[in-house]
Amino acid sequence: MSERTGAHLKRRHAELLVALDDERHLGRAAERLHMSQPAASKALAQLEEQVGYALFERGTQGTLPTNAGMVMIRHARHSLGAAQRVAAELRAAEERGASLLRLGTLPSAAPRLAPQLIAHLLGLAPRLEVKLVEGALGELMDRLARDELDIVLGRLGSRLLPADCEVIRLHEEPILVVARPGHPLAASQALEAVELARWPWVLPLEATMMRERLDEAFVHAGSRPPDSSIQSNSLLATLALLAQDDRLAALPQAIARYCERQGSVAVLPLRLDANFGAIGAVVNRNTAGMPVVQAAMAWLRGLPENTNQAAPGPGA
């Protein structure tokens, strides 16, 4: 196999590899690409002959990639992501004279960090086009690795990050306890963890970092962790449940303060010794040389460590 096979992967071969990986069925992959199944089979055979390895095997669970196939699929996704980036930039430049930033955000960065970054960049380049995608960490990191995103903002977590990226750590994100406006505890000057544990809750899902950090904080404060029959990883559902009765919930500070400003929650005067995790940015090194990405990185690096910290509430 030529050492430059991946670099010269034809677009139709790249699309076929990705479709086969997604569909795990040659017929469905061919249909997705508007090809006949014999044509798809022939294209796959040509590619396997070119690289010198079998790329897929048919089994009871469908058409599955071999180890060599997984390598080629990764190159195919990277190649298609880069091609999509070039096409989008060309359209923006030719049709509107604009540059393009593809920004991913986790919910923890969506209320404050992402809008602030976008506002700063638009101040520098009013014709900038921004494609903002919210998602889970794993999904966004996969898209970053495929060159479909330039920057991802949010909690960094413990997931192994893509090799071709740079990490900018910003700050630790505290966890705050919230309730509906007008909740009996909202007017308190100071609260103890033991008291809050007795109230009904909407808790984070078990085995999540948020739940583990919350439980640890209550134990550290000398209280049993809260217990509840309701667990949720949906912000909208949690807010709706809080509005119905006197339940409590825990949210990352940026989200809690944003919801407080919107009038949908009251932040209770209890400062837990708990952090949601490190908030930061993961930058795609393949596009880090672009002026708009460099401007974003400069702004992020210039943020003070407490940029996302709001003033503590009463008794906090």
UniProtKB/TrEMBL annotation:
Would I find Membrane among this entry's keywords?
A: no
- Occurrences of domain HTH lysR-type (ranges): 9-66
Pfam family membership, one: HTH_1
- The keyword DNA-binding belongs to this UniProt entry's keyword annotation: yes
Q: Which terms in the Gene Ontology molecular function aspect does this entry carry?
A: DNA binding; DNA-binding transcription factor activity
Query: Can you name a GO cellular component term?
Result: cytosol
Instruction: List the InterPro entries hit by this protein, alphabetically.
Output: HTH-type_LysR_regulators, LysR_HTH_N, LysR_subst-bd, WH-like_DNA-bd_sf, WH_DNA-bd_sf
PANTHER family xrefs: HTH-TYPE TRANSCRIPTIONAL REGULATOR YBHD, NITROGEN ASSIMILATION TRANSCRIPTIONAL ACTIVATOR-RELATED
What the record says about family reads: Belongs to the LysR transcriptional regulatory family.
Put simply, this protein is called: LysR family transcriptional regulator
Query: What is the species listed in this Swiss-Prot or TrEMBL entry?
Result: Alcaligenes xylosoxydans xylosoxydans
